[in-house]
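$ ./design --mode recover --in tokens.txt
reading tokens...
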């Protein structure tokens, strides 16, 4: 069904597109350590002439421009950003500017998003974005554009546009993706059902070509699991060794079982990896066994011995976890001394099987999307109260970033000690400010 909009009047100037990354919370000086919104950089890259593109990242911007100078507004959002995205959409629609909503939350709840926008893009934007823009100029924009489900194992698309970041300050603007998709289908993750049930990789030459345009030494791969398919990752890792880059990304620790692959990753310039451990027992332990992993402690140590900083990510709140999970997590961090540790509260995001399960069981406490952020308890745990889960999460974070814990981890890792210490110090203050009382 088409949602008709009046044809745009002929103009001497090019039509203008405003892309918005929403964020209700002002971060102060911490915004200097954020990464740019790569998804919108890809949308900008898919926007053809004669369109002019302006990016507003609310993490960086002090004020939102008026909609009077724009012909279309595109807003992306994850679940916790949805309330702010809807607020912005209402403002621009009130000014007479059509609004397109996209991203993971509109993808999993398109009917909800449609109540707040003129158009919803469901799935990956790249396959349909050109058609959206053509239809806007022709005055026939539809109410929804559904991208085809990803197929095959090749990821294609234009390089992200970095020129639209001028005037903004990030830890680096040199962010890219080499892969999308995942076959593991974890119950708390939306990647598998919505972005491909297999790993899709860009051609090695394409990845290396984009990396060769970088002027600074640090690159960040914003992949869900960069090393998920070592066979596909190896060709560009070999080429990266000749580029004199340092890079960071996220992955599982499974790759470290292959010692030759681990050495290749180290030689390619890998500085740091964010590795999902999820939980130390139950659901995550079962997944680890399915994937044939060695004990997580051994893999963390092996990666760090290769000169790569490791930050582990652990989740609290699985059904088989009681109050003992907090102490178990802290013992794990103490034993293997990762460079950093990130603790999350299990969050049943819309579109996941976990959300469907908790909704069917009547265990969701509310649907205040702004609190679906890994930092609030939004469901009723099975083996502890919501209040106990929240308090344990706060106490674990503060214990892991107490000074003696920081110094112990840094002292036990001989590589990149200054970088390691600086990162931990930056992480300490936000943890210290937490109050162990659930909202």
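writing sequence...
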């Amino acid at each position: 069904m088409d949602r008709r909009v009046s044809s745009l009047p002929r103009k001497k100037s090019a039509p203008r597109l405003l892309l918005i990354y929403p964020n209700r919370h002002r971060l102060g000086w911490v915004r200097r350590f954020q990464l740019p919104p790569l998804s919108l950089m890809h949308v900008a890259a898919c926007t053809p002439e004669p369109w002019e593109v302006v990016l507003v990242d609310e993490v960086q911007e002090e004020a939102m421009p008026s909609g009077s100078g724009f012909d279309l507004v595109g807003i992306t959002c994850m679940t916790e950003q949805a309330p702010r995205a809807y607020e912005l959409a209402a403002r621009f629609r009130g000014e007479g500017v059509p609004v397109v909503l996209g991203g993971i939350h509109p993808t999993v709840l398109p009917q909800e998003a449609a109540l707040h926008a003129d158009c919803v893009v469901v799935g990956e934007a790249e396959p349909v974005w050109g058609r959206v823009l053509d239809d806007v100029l022709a005055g026939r924009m539809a109410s929804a554009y559904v991208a085809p489900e990803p197929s095959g194992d090749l990821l294609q698309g234009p390089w992200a546009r970095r020129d639209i970041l001028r005037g903004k300050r990030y830890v680096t603007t040199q962010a890219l993706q080499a892969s999308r998709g995942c076959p593991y289908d974890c119950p708390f993750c939306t990647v598998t059902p919505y972005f491909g049930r297999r790993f899709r990789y860009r051609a090695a030459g394409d990845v290396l070509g984009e990396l060769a345009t970088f002027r600074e030494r640090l690159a960040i791969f914003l992949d869900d699991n960069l090393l998920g398919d070592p066979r596909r990752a190896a060709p560009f890792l070999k080429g990266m060794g000749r580029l004199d880059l340092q890079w960071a990304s996220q992955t599982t620790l499974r790759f470290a079982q292959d010692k030759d692959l681990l050495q290749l990753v180290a030689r390619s310039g890998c500085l740091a990896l964010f590795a999902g451990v999820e939980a130390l027992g139950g659901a995550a332990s079962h997944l680890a066994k399915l994937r044939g992993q060695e004990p997580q402690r051994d893999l963390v140590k092996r990666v760090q011995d290769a000169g790569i900083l490791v930050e582990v990510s652990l989740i609290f709140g699985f059904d088989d976890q009681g109050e003992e999970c907090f102490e178990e997590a802290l013992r794990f961090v103490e034993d293997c001394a990762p460079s950093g540790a990130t603790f999350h509260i299990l969050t049943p995001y819309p579109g996941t099987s976990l959300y469907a399960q908790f909704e069917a069981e009547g265990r969701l406490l509310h649907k205040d999307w702004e609190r679906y952020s890994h930092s609030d308890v939004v469901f009723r745990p099975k083996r502890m109260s919501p209040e106990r889960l929240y308090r344990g999460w706060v106490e674990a974070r503060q214990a892991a970033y107490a000074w003696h814990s920081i110094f112990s981890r840094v002292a036990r890792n001989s590589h990149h000690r200054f970088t390691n210490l600086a990162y931990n110090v930056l992480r300490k203050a936000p943890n210290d400010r937490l109050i162990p009382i659930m909202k």
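exit 0
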